[in-house]
């Protein structure tokens, strides 16, 4: 699974976590958010906590004070997917079938992408990075892909779409006419940021992961598909799950894909046409709605409706530990090589990633815990208390080493002018046609 080189690179990560595991009294702030509505997505990005809700809005707050910076309105349906890019752009997907692009500095919506015919349920932002590319003769070379930041969106309409993410200075784009009047073909032709439609799934696309020029999608049709997002080619279609697929994770270093769903197992697929076999990780007794690789790709964690988290060695598939203590389905978790933060009905907990040992409760006495996230010294949860939605923000102390967000090779790349000529020319031509002196 994950290469030995990649796994060893993260062996010193524990040194960053004494602030988490040994600080008995982190600063704790509680703020109301979104009235009494469900928080569907929560992300931490450059000193801000950003939440999306089924109330159709997105809220941007200061991590330090909880102060509301922007209340982003425009969607006509619940917001169920949310991503931020390195150039401080926020992207949202909604039950209203649209994708909106927001300027995080001003709070303005700069672009609306139409085309999906149902809820936009999953998205992946693909930043340029150096990846290994294998040619038809089996020779491997290093290349930068993609040439510009891309977005891959997955929808209940059974399709995925690939978009060029607008950058500073690119022209705005809003489809003409009302949403009900948008014809799919017309929207595709008009939008200079639209690149591809990926078809092949026979049911809703539930999850998407992507890196370089590769994307993986998991669907309610029980299949997992792997795509080349530059050409639109379906590279692999993996069948084996007996019920709906809920989560996927891509590991390009080890050339593997992980998937899970209603059938209570994790499957590990090889991105090598010469290897038909795949591994099955068993142990959960109910639906596995969540899986994720650690940033180093050293461990895989699965969260299940059986109220447990299982920790797997991502190199060999061995079970390292089981985190037992929640009393209901795992609703959210995040982990790195030393800690797991998880949420379920009533509690937010911290665990040791190495073996699943319980460390501490961060929050108790709440009703529903919808989302948990951490970054650097910060941890945030969204939960329901007395029929109101609350954000809990923990600061685990000054002195935490806020290491670079992109240790794995992804970073703040500058787009290289003409490397993606088709996209750049299409966008430039569109800008020329709408320019008003």
From TrEMBL:
Transmembrane segments: none annotated. InterPro entries: WD40/YVTN_repeat-like_dom_sf, WD40_PAC1, WD40_repeat_CS, WD40_repeat_dom_sf, WD40_rpt. This is Cell division control protein 4. GO terms for molecular function: ubiquitin binding. It comes from Coprinopsis marcescibilis. GO terms for cellular component: cytoplasm; nucleus. Residues 1-21 are annotated as: Disordered. WD repeats lie at residues 72-112, 146-165, 198-237, 238-279, 281-322. Gene3D superfamilies: YVTN repeat-like/Quinoprotein amine dehydrogenase. GO terms for biological process: cell division; proteasome-mediated ubiquitin-dependent protein catabolic process; ubiquitin recycling. Pfam families: WD40. Keywords: Cell cycle, Cell division, Repeat, WD repeat.
């Amino acid at each position: 699974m994950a290469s030995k080189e990649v796994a060893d690179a993260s062996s010193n990560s524990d040194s960053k976590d004494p602030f988490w595991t040994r600080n008995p009294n982190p600063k704790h702030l509680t703020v109301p958010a979104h009235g009494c509505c469900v928080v569907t997505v929560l992300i931490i990005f450059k000193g801000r906590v950003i939440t999306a809700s089924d109330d159709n809005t997105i809220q941007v707050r200061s991590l330090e004070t909880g102060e509301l910076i922007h209340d982003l309105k425009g969607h006509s349906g619940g917001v169920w997917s949310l991503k931020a890019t390195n150039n401080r752009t926020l992207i949202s997907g909604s039950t209203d079938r649209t994708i909106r692009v927001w300027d995080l500095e001003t709070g303005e919506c700069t672009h609306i992408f139409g085309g999906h015919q149902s809820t936009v349920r999953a998205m992946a932002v693909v930043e340029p990075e150096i990846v290994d590319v294998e040619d038809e003769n089996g020779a491997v070379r290093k290349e930068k892909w993609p040439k510009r930041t891309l977005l891959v969106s997955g929808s209940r309409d059974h399709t995925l779409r690939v978009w060029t993410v607008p950058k500073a200075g690119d022209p705005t784009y809003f489809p003409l006419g009302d949403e009900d009047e948008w014809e799919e073909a017309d929207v595709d032709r008009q939008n200079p940021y639209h690149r591809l439609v990926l078809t092949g799934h026979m049911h809703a696309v539930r999850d998407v992961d992507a890196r370089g020029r590769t994307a993986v999608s998991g669907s309610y049709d029980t299949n997992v598909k792997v795509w080349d997002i530059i050409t639109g080619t379906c590279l692999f279609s993996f069948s084996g799950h007996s019920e709906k697929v809920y989560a996927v994770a891509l590991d390009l270093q080890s050339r593997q894909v992980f998937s899970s769903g209603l059938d209570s197992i994790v499957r590990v697929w090889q991105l090598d046409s010469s290897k038909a076999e795949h591994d099955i990780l068993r142990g959960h007794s109910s639906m596995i709605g969540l899986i994720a690789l650690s940033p180093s790709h050293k461990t895989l964690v699965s969260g299940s409706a059986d109220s447990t988290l299982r920790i797997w060695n991502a190199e060999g598939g061995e079970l390292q530990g089981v985190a037992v203590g929640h009393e209901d389905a795992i609703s959210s978790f995040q982990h790195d090589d030393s800690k797991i933060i998880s949420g379920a009905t009533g509690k937010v907990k911290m665990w040791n990633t190495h073996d699943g040992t319980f460390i501490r409760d961060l929050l108790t006495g709440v009703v529903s815990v919808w989302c948990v996230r951490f970054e650097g010294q910060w941890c945030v949860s969204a939960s329901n208390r007395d029929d109101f939605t609350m954000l809990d923000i923990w600061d685990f102390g000054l002195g935490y080493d806020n290491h670079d967000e992109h240790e794995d090779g992804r970073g703040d790349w500058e787009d290289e002018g003409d490397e993606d000529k088709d996209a750049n020319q299409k966008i430039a031509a569109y800008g020329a046609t709408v320019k008003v002196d």
